[in-house]
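Assess the record.
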Amino acid sequence: MGFIDKVKASVKSGAEMAATKAQEEYERMQVRRGLTDAYESLGAKTFELADRGELSHADLTPLVEEVRSAKDKLETIGKEQDEAVSPAPVEQPEPSAEQPPPTI
């Protein structure tokens, strides 16, 4: 086998290894995403049960309070901005009987 053939074989082998590593990393990323989704679902269900009083544990109490506080804060942010932005109603003068209504 000549030098060029050895280089080609080495490059091909390296490319195959890189493709395999990329595929493995992609699969790892997909599993991590699934795990994160499962944790999120578990947390949401745990909060729901704890909030309804169907699940209680001393370790959950501060976490449940933190979620409640964040939800309350989230609701007040929108309300504060709505109240601050809403302008006072402007009264429109009544058209007099002498003036014809505007045409469009």
User: Anything to note?
Assistant: The mean pLDDT is 85.
